[in-house]
## 1
Amino acid sequence: MKDQFSRKINYLRISVTDRCNLSCQYCKLYPFSFRDSSSILSYEEILRVVKISLTLGINKFRLTGGEPLIRKDLAKFVRKVNSLKGIEDLSLTTNGILLKKYAKSLKEAGLKRINLSLDTLKEDKFKLLCRKDALKDVLSGIKEALKIGFVPLKINLVVLRDFNLDEIDDFINFTKDFRVIVRFIELMPFNEELNWFKRQFVSVKELKEKLRRKYILTEVKDIYTAGPAKYYKIKDFGIIGFIAGVNECFCQDCNRLRLTSYGSLRPCLWNKNELNLKEMLRAYAGDQEIIQKIKDLVICKPKERKLTQSQVSMWEVGG
Ligand code: SAM
């Protein structure tokens, strides 16, 4: 499926829940409340969307949230998705707290890759930033995921001036044996009014300059080319990536749609235009009708994002 700017749309990020076992400061802006479970898509409903998406040429899927691993029977759902003909990639984004428990069953169910979000390796900062004392669980989750064979494991870190700028070396150390790739991500201003965002923001440009004073970075172009990250080999260490989601625009290569936990299809994180698929699914709309609506939506995928247009947080839309 192509949009009006000839971008090939082949990637769907699916938020399986808006709930999370963390409340990270930059993600959940207070006040917030979760939706009741009847307004969240059932697995059967999501599966139908996946099947329809496959007929439209979408063959890469990522499960996210909220925290996907807190939804009951996720591994069983992974198995069902993975058994569909045409699935090329099925991955998961998680905070890792429950990975020790689920890594094995997810692997057996056919999950291919995991991205894990971790912003600090210090217990006190983790507690402050994520509002939970759970760093130990995340670290055991990482260990288990690597043991089970989710290699390379991508660790995503949102760079925050007062929280982790002093920990970058520790994260780089993680990459040494090439089993972990660390990706540094620019903090996105989900609510521009908040001075907190402005104060914490560190650009990829600033971070790269800082790193170049200490390390030798060589851009790696031939691997991991899909997606917005730029990858570098660090001499004597492994691979790191940078995602400058605020200061750079990747829209010209955007191949993604998002299915929100509340059942809407979004062509752009930063644009409120959505298709209410849940309503259609629950009104017994036929596949052809849904397909046509999706095509109409994709045609309207904005050429470029406008950073001010969304007041919805990642936990609602799906990070
Ligand atoms: N719970 C899962 C996790 O923690 O990976 C999936 C959902 S979470 C919303 C997905 C990603 O969104 C996390 O890596 C998180 O750091 C990122 N995120 C949330 N708010 C963000 C913000 N304001 N700027 C940049 N990344 C953000």
Note: Residues 11-317 form a domain with the TIM Barrel fold (CATH 3.20.20.70).
## 2
Amino acid sequence: MFDSGFGGLTVARATIDLLPGEDVVYIGDTGRYPFGSKPLTDVRGYARQLAWSLVKEHNAKAIVVACNTATAAGLDDLRSELPVPVIDVIAPGSASLVRATVTGRVGVIGTVGTVASGAYVRAIADTGAPVSLTSAACPGFVEFVERGQTTGDEVTVLAERLLAPIQAADVDALLLGCTHYPFLARTIGDVLGPGVTLVSSADETAFAVRVTLGELGLLRDEGAIGEHRFLSSGDVDRFRELGSRLLGPELDHTERWEPS
Ligand code: DGL
């Protein structure tokens, strides 16, 4: 699986917990982060390099695009050219969001790239659920997570400003449509209050991985013990330090990844 940085670790955590027997190779492309403010054509190119590297160099049997922006940039090419299944975060997250609402008023927050792409508007329409959607881009959230600053006054002030349209729309369920945002869930939850259910795509994506591998007969036998490798295109020491705080003890070592 891959992401621009630390965000996809939320998906890695959920996948390791659900499927402890599977090997996971995670690439955080911190050398080229952030993806959310870059042209989607660039992000599509990065996603291709990352996915092919996982297939060719790590013999991946499936790819998890643990990044909403990369998913929003378009996975059709990737899906048609790769010899393995590709699982994204947007479809599972959307399904989970429409299940979580009672009033039918839902929200999605994400990077500028994700929100501007309209990918969630399409994915939620595809669910067929009769909901009204309010979206908001949250530039700055990812940067706080990448700095390891997930709580505090500065994050709260920014959250109050960026979440104002979500509050005004009176939603009862909000999808964290960027894999970095679950690390800010405490602040987001405090700002929006207990009447808003926060939905993270991480768990739903892990379930989608299990379903896909199961359907293809690719799941490891129960009792297997998976190995976990973490790679970064940026500062590997920092990736290990902050990554182990965010993901947990499995991230005790980070290897260097170079785009080719
Ligand atoms: N974590 C990523 C996402 O889900 C992208 C963050 C970024 O690099 O801007 O969209």
Note: The chain has a mean pLDDT of 96.
## 3
Amino acid sequence: MLGIGSDHGGYHLKQAIMRHLEERGVAYRDYGTYSDASCDYPDYGRAVALAVANGECDNGIIICGTGIGISITANKVPGIRAALCGDCFSAEATRSHNDANILALGARVVGEGLALKIVDTFLDTPFSNDERHIRRIRKIEG
Ligand code: RB5
């Protein structure tokens, strides 16, 4: 199960990503927001991060205008490695090297076509399981 959430700035991209997930047959749960009315990105970033951290979801996608505020919020939750990606190289590397469990996107930064490619790259790239990356990820948690 994939958890997805956004603020108003990411609402329309979230709708497009959910349609894309349906086409791919990826099961997801929508944690809001449910309209483009102004709202607070921490509420939605935290909801998805908590769902991933407590095992309700396996991974997540979070979106705000820049992707910055919502990723900062998600990364406050222990066990969360949220990666803000604006290109496919970063999306591949953060799965392979960081075992990122949440993808953050900036809807005012990347167009829909690129965003969907980034989503596909994130979902299709496994963690490398290399010892050095496991060691570094452990050090993130302190
Ligand atoms: C909302 O206007 C905007 O601040 C938000 O979507 C995000 O970019 C914050 O980091």
Note: Residues 7, 9, 41, 64-66, 68-69 surround D-ribose (CB under 6 Å).
